[in-house]
Amino acid sequence: DTGVSQDPRHKITKRGQNVTFRCDPISEHNRLYWYRQTLGQGPEFLTYFQNEAQLEKSRLLSDRFSAERPKGSFSTLEIQRTEQGDSAMYLCASSVGTDTQYFGPGTRLTVL
Amino acid sequence: GNSVTQMEGPVTLSEEAFLTINCTYTATGYPSLFWYVQYPGEGLQLLLKATKADDKGSNKGFEATYRKETTSFHLEKGSVQVSDSAVYFCALRSTDKLIFGTGTRLQVFP
Question: Using one digit for the tens of pLDDT, what is the confidence trace for B69-110?
Fold first, then answer.
């Protein structure tokens, strides 16, 4: 059990560029979650998958955001036409069903 | 809607002092409750959890009791160490997602 991993750990981009983050869950975990954490706040839910199906999306997830989990293993989160307000820590978590969610180290995005 | 309210930080303590971090929640039904900890430069780690009323979660000397009468899940530790310095998040599970409080920073000085 190697834990949840995320790549990259840090990303600096210019406004208007597209970025993509990857999350590898704990093997055998069928659920995968994405959260966003801004400075001084707790994480906020964005979306989650059960296997390859995306079951819920938050209103925070604008049309510029898209997430996939094509084979029910790793997931990607893409942000198109980034804005300065997208600067945050993007966290991934995984679980077996509704059991405890285990978090990765996060990807810190800075939009200049 | 469901929400979690935590006491604002930072909480500053001397080593071996008693710690309480208050957490109250608003929810329909009886959600599972969690405390996560975030050490500097690291991701969120589960500290403890409780899944039903009157359950006590405990780990690494930390404890929290699920109180449905007061809708609270306060975190306590009898004697803190410098290594406990971190940000602590209270959370509840609402259907399939976690709802977090804003976090409380704990600073412990020798």
Answer: 999 999 999 999 999 999 999 999 988 899 999 999 999 999
How many Å lie between the alpha carbon of A30 and the closest alpha carbon of chain B?
Answer: 13
Q: Mean pLDDT score of chain B, rounded to an integer?
A: 94
- Cα separation, A107 vs A92, whole angstroms: 9
Q: Tens digits of per-residue pLDDT, A1-41?
A: 579 999 999 999 999 999 999 999 999 899 999 999 998 89
For residue A87, the model assigns a pLDDT of 97
B91 touches chain A (CB under 8 A): yes
Candidates A40, A48, A104; nearest CB to B96: A48
Asked if B62 reaches chain A (Cβ–Cβ under 8 Å), the answer is: no
Find the chain A residues whose C-beta atoms sit closer than 8 A to any C-beta of B: 4, 31, 33, 35, 40-45, 48, 55-56, 91, 93, 98, 100-106
Residues of A in contact with B34 (CB under 8 A): 100
What is the mean predicted confidence (pLDDT) over A39-62?
92
Spatial separation of the C-alpha atoms in residues A6 and A34, rounded to whole Å: 11
* CA A90 – CA B22 distance, rounded (Å): 26
Place of tokens 């780690």: B45
Label each residue of chain B as H, E or C.
CCEEEECCCCEEEECCCCEEECEEEECCCCCCEEEEEECCCCCEEEEEEECCCCCEEEECCEEEECECCCCECCEEECCCCHHHCEEEEEEEEECCEEEECCCEEEEEEC
